[in-house]
Amino acid sequence: MSERLPRIGLLGVMQPLYDDMLPGITERQHGYAREIAAALSGVAEVSVAPPARGREDAEAAVRGFENDDLDGVLVVMLTYGPSLRVTRLFSRMRLPVCLANVQPDPAVTAEWDMADMTYNQGIHGAQDTANAMVRAGLPFEVVTEDFRARAFAERVGRWARAARAAAALGRLKVGVFGYPMNGMGDARFDESELIRGLGPEVVYIAQGELARAMAEPSAAEVKELLAGERERFEVDERLSAEELDDHARYQLGIERVLERHGCAAYSAHFDALGEDGRFARLPMAAASSLMARGYGFAGEGDVPAASIVYAGHRLIGDGHFTEMYAMDFPGDSILMSHMGEGNWKVARDDEPVRLIKRPLAIGGLDDPPTLLFRIAPGPATLASLVTLGGGRFRLVVAEGEVLDGPRLPALEMPYGQFRPDSGVRDCMDGWLRAGGTHHIVMNLGRRAEDWKVFCAAAGIEYRPV
Fold first, then answer.
1. According to the model, what pLDDT value does residue 186 have?
2. Quick one: 432 exposed, middle or buried, by C-beta within 10 A (0-12, 13-18, 19+)?
3. Closest CA to 223 of 265, 193, 252
4. Is the pLDDT of residue 435 over 80?
5. 3-state secondary structure of 136
6. Backbone dihedral region for residue 200 (phi beyond 0: left; psi -120 to 50: alpha; all else: beta)
7. 266 in the same domain as 337
8. What are phi and psi of 364, to 5 degrees?
9. Are residues 160 and 197 in the same domain?
10. Which of 128, 334, 341, 416 could, after both became Cys, cross-link 375 (CB 3.0–4.6 A)?
């Protein structure tokens, strides 16, 4: 899945009050808006609308942004603009919004005259406009900065990535093969609430379609996939030709089915595949490689978790599906792993990723080829999407560090030990009080601020622990 820069629209707000006093002010301030766009060229593609000098201009500009399928709207006060001209617009805004509290000149100088005061008076328009957003119940980000400063591009870039991820989540389709795991409550959700509140649509896919899709790839396609994996991974010599062929067909078949249904994320429950009768083993390694290709994934039919793994791809990159397996109190850390699925792009680079023959009793099927690796040591962030009911969602987020710990030779699935910044006791107390789920997305790096801005863009409650 190719990545692209976020695409945002710049809505510059002003009014015709100053035209007689300062002829050419509209054209001058439009040039200022284009300067702002140029300052953001490295972090976003910016479409600059004509200056919005009234309600009709503003509404037409935002309709254009929506029709062009942009990711968000950057609101800039080109002069003071009365907020009642955009109040109705904000009450119906469908795109994430950031208010850039900026001005043309960074400093007030003794040379300023009334014209300079007018060109730089955006701050009180920003106050009026922000008040209208708050009263409309519109979530929005605010960036106060010199627009020429690097910090401005960094902060708006973070919001733009969050807007892109929120927009992608709003368009997401999640494929579910079979049915979700019986009795697993923290993954249950109301489909209409999910699509209405966040956007993901659930597509239930019969296992028979997957079985047929696995038979479609030619021998040459299978050979090409396996040759690429032999270059990338250390392949266990105990894996038979039949096991490798089945593994490759799983990966190719799942991706074909997802493409047919327009799904960028999926989940499969081991019992649904195990009880079907047409599958020899579970698609562990396939899930790992599809995550590495940018698909969202979660086990056991967990649609919210698959959705947030996908959001992790789009917001930060290389989302890794995992869960908390056990606590290590002496090491103040948590063992992170799952049955065998994990994004191998988060693997440490001083050890090979291994494609192993691995016994697994879960599902009642034959041994599934599994990608085994340890997570790269260093800063990392966990995030869990919680369904609260009533159309409300919460993201529980913990920053910390993956330890450069000892190997666990008997653990034949991706793993690592995560030490929360807040300590394992306080982190887990906060996680459980917040209702954090057991299926989690991990991203490398300290990315809590990215998730915080994403939550504002997507209308999700943000809860750090």
1. 86
2. exposed
3. 252
4. yes
5. coil
6. beta
7. yes
8. 70, 25
9. no
10. 416
